[in-house]
Amino acid sequence: MRLSEVLEALSGSLKKYINDSDPNLTGIQMDSRKVKPGDLFVAISGFQIDGHQFIQEAIDKGAAAVIGEHDLELAVPYIQVFDSRLALGRAASAYYHHPSRKHTVIGVTGTNGKTTVSYILKHILEHAGRSCSLLGTVSYIINDEVYKPSNTTPDALQIQELMAASNDEFVVLEVSSHALKQYRIEGLELDYGLFTNLSHDHLDYHPTIEDYFEAKTLMYNYMKQEGSAVVSKLCEWGDKLADLLSAKEIPVYSMGDHESDDLKIENIKLNGATRFEVRVGGVVYPLTLPSPGLHNVYNAAMAFLTAIKIGIHPDVIAEALKTFPGVPGRFEMIPHPDGATFIVDYAHTTDAIEYCLHAAQEHDAAKIKHIFGFRGERDKTKREDMVRASAEMSDEFILTFDDLNGVSVEEMENELKELNDRFGMNKGRIITDRTLAIQEAWENANPGEWILITGKGPEEYQTMYELPTTSDKDTLLYLQKQQEKEKIIG
Ligand SMILES: CC(=O)N[C@H]1[C@@H](OP(=O)(O)OP(=O)(O)OC[C@H]2O[C@@H](n3ccc(=O)[nH]c3=O)[C@H](O)[C@@H]2O)O[C@H](CO)[C@@H](O)[C@@H]1O[C@H](C)C(=O)N[C@@H](C)C(=O)N[C@H](CCC(=O)O)C(=O)O
Ligand SMILES: Nc1ncnc2c1ncn2[C@@H]1O[C@H](COP(=O)(O)OP(=O)(O)OP(=O)(O)O)[C@@H](O)[C@H]1O
What parts of the chain have a pLDDT lower than 50? Predict the structure, then answer.
């Protein structure tokens, strides 16, 4: 593709370009280390490092042209723009011939539930015989090939590459607030924009919750002409969003408690299999979902409403929900041989912790034990509410390590002690080694107890622990095996 064709997509974001040649481009890169002859190199002013430092390296490797924000004169055509991340999205979309136009694209944003809603939707679509790619926290799945994700929402270049590579009819992607602020979905065009909920998270990145909300609303700047929003009004921010979108004349399908909402949830039963009804257009549909918890009722209802709008028959959706296999590390159950239930879950906000512990309560847990910690170098302001929630809703809890992310062992241990002293209501203990905390709970588990281990979900440990295991689930399976071995020997 000629540089001039990419430039057409940059109009409005161009600051300066002296048109002296029009090289043929054979690729786009935002990382100088990956540049090959003929590539367009986009220099990003990053959080860690300024990509403009690597322009010469990119030229030496054969870059045919460069995009950047600084005022420079280079040996190859240089396009100065107001914002390189925004230009990257537009340039990549143009380079890959606007691939989102060939798919039905569903963006899912919100604090919690993005991954789960995305997986439920993919499951419904596939049950209906339609093909679906998925980009999110757990994996990127394109044409049934599974890739390890770099971010929840990939960078703009990767998104366009993956969209172009996908032969699937649908693409469901999780859209994080970081991605929106960093223009990672610039150049993308969405058919549906889903909003699950908003609660306290990421206030290390966003100065206020209002700023966090504003970031989420940016997703709706990327709707196709005929695109529509699916919004949960079960959270007050959803109400606010629906008003905003209506003012912009974006059609909104809402789920909520009012007669005017497009979907209303009724008759929820959480004990045993999750059963509930949804009322849509005056018709009531009884639904069953294998995944426990009220939060999963909301996730399934949002997927149901979206699938209806896509045109999937309600009976097909209902059948699909019955067989939804769940998402790795989201309320994943591992039974203890003595009759206790261990849960691995990715809850890392107060809201999510409350939903998880509530799910255990609804299952008449004889006792609820909770094991969790806090990610180093991430939003510290949510920690006290997480401890409060656990203290109020569990019978006892153990504070342990999550990823330290460079924070020292002493600093995190002190933080855990202080939080426990101030907000733990005398229910908490500290066992810093995560595997030993789980082992302790395993060895002391009693019939009917529910032990919830939250925060890491399916993620691998980044800290070296005592037991030779790689994740919370792996630790539980290891303990299970050890116990079986001991039984055989003993
Ligand atoms: C803080 C943050 O969001 N950082 C994101 C940002 O990276 P950055 O600006 O720090 O990049 P940088 O390292 O400074 O590099 C700047 C530029 O120099 C280039 N470079 C660098 C070295 C070199 O030799 N040559 C070169 O050209 C780099 O390729 C880059 O283009 O832009 C990158 C590309 O899009 C992201 O991958 C990266 O996400 C990091 C890994 C991250 O951890 N982000 C988290 C906070 C995040 O985004 N999380 C959300 C989910 C949140 C949730 O809901 O839980 C997500 O979407 O994943
Ligand atoms: N609708 C919901 N409301 C509140 N909490 C939820 C909801 N759905 C899931 N959760 C909780 O949040 C955790 C993360 O769920 P999920 O991965 O679906 O969300 P997410 O938005 O993709 O989060 P992340 O972007 O951090 O991966 C779950 O393990 C569960 O504890």
Answer: none
